Design the sequence.
């Protein structure tokens, strides 16, 4: 008698070896994708586009949190691994400490909830709900679609003179975010450009031939609204993210990509004259901020100094979440202006109060101290380092989902660089949590066994 032994199917050993799943298994992603797309819902600061005062995108992110909790409880999905729980949960330590040690813990509580949402809950939800590379591509694709919609709106504003006021003309591309959030459109366009560039350099396996050109064309076209945002910080962050993506694809592809990128910039901006004079002046101002800073740069330097002063006053735990505005005047010099002038894009002239230092690292340092800064930056650094390591290893073995790693590392690079010139605030803030979640999925995700629910 011959005994035949049939081996049990082996568990997948990488992100790319998971069995294919249809959208019947990915329905929990729908609230998350909706949260990304609803960032484009216009808001004018008066509550439009919000329910009970909460932006639609934030409401949908809350729905995604509830869906994730239901999936864990009723479908018995595997929760976070110990490593993922440590990396994503670390910021909560600094947040809790900064809240309880604040001069007014009740006033700090809304800040605790907001930070917990963006830096802990939403990233964890993305990590748990995105189960495979197809799910990752769906969320990243939503970021690209959002960037295209906002970018097209911004270009229309520039062409028709219906944008935010810039140098006396209403030409600044701000998309649906309005002049009070001039970084909003630049942020979503930057995300979309980085994701599209990554998909262009490594087209996902199985993409129909007729669709293979969409990614490079989209990435090239998004350069235009990014330029017309006149946002120096977004330019620098996008350049850093794009260079990271290009460098991690390999030398040969990197050289070709840089050549194409340079040609696209020359044709779109130089050849067609798209805001070329103003863009040139804005670029030149990047290197002149220390010798002849304009008022916005002077205000930024003054608020940076004020944030540093708050930290020196309470170095361990900071002045407390949401404490920067209350302590600003006590630490700022008399050179700080009363606010930022905003106008255009359908809004009358307003004086925008200066409520943050426009530098996430200094904001965290001033409000959460060294404890909070170490926790947050340590979490981000772990995601970036682990993501780069997994990407290098995946590329070396010819893995099929390398484009997901390129998107994750590119977006994470964009975010960490942009935080040198910006901080959280505005309708696009929820996307920060989504970006961190995508980076966490690539860096920390462990495939489930075949046949798992």
Sequence:
């Amino acid at each position: 008698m011959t005994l035949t032994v049939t081996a049990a199917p082996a568990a997948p050993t990488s992100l790319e070896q998971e069995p294919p799943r249809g959208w019947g298994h990915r329905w929990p992603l729908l609230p998350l994708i909706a949260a990304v797309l609803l960032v484009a819902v216009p808001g004018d600061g008066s509550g439009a586009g919000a329910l009970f005062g909460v932006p639609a995108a934030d409401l949908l992110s809350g729905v995604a949190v509830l869906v994730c909790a239901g999936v864990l409880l009723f479908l018995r999905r595997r929760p976070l691994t110990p490593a993922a729980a440590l990396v994503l949960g670390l910021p909560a330590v600094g947040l809790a400490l900064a809240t309880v040690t604040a001069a007014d813990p009740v006033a700090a509580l809304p800040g605790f909830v907001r930070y917990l949402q963006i830096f802990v809950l939403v990233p964890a939800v993305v990590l748990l709900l995105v189960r495979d590379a197809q799910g990752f591509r769906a969320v990243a694709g939503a970021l690209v679609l959002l960037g295209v919609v906002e970018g097209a709106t911004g270009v229309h504003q520039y062409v028709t003179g219906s944008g935010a006021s810039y140098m006396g003309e209403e030409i600044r591309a701000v998309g649906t975010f309005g002049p009070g959030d001039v970084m909003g459109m630049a942020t979503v366009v930057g995300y979309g450009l980085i994701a599209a560039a990554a998909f262009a350099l490594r087209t996902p396996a199985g993409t129909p031939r007729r669709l293979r050109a969409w990614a490079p064309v989209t990435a090239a076209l998004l350069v235009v609204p990014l330029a017309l945002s006149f946002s120096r910080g977004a330019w620098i962050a996008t350049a850093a993210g794009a260079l990271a993506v290009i460098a991690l694809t390999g030398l040969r592809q990197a050289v070709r990509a840089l050549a194409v990128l340079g040609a696209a910039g020359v044709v779109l901006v130089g050849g067609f004259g798209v805001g070329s004079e103003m863009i040139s002046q804005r670029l030149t101002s990047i290197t002149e901020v220390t010798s002849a800073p304009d008022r916005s740069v002077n205000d930024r330097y003054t608020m940076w100094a004020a944030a540093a002063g708050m930290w020196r006053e309470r170095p361990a735990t900071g002045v407390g979440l949401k404490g920067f505005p209350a302590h600003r005047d006590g630490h700022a010099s008399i050179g700080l202006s009363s606010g930022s002038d905003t106008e255009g894009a359908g809004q009358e002239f307003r004086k925008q109060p200066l409520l943050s230092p426009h530098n996430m690292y200094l904001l965290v340092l001033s409000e959460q101290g060294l404890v909070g800064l170490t926790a947050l930056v340590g979490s981000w650094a772990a995601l970036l380092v682990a993501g780069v390591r997994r990407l290098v290893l995946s590329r070396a073995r010819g893995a099929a989902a390398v484009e997901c790693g390129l998107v994750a590392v590119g977006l994470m690079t964009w975010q960490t660089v942009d935080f040198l010139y910006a901080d959280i605030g505005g309708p696009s803030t929820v996307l920060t949590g989504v970006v961190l979640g995508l980076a966490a999925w690539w860096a920390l995700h462990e495939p489930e066994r075949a046949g798992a629910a």
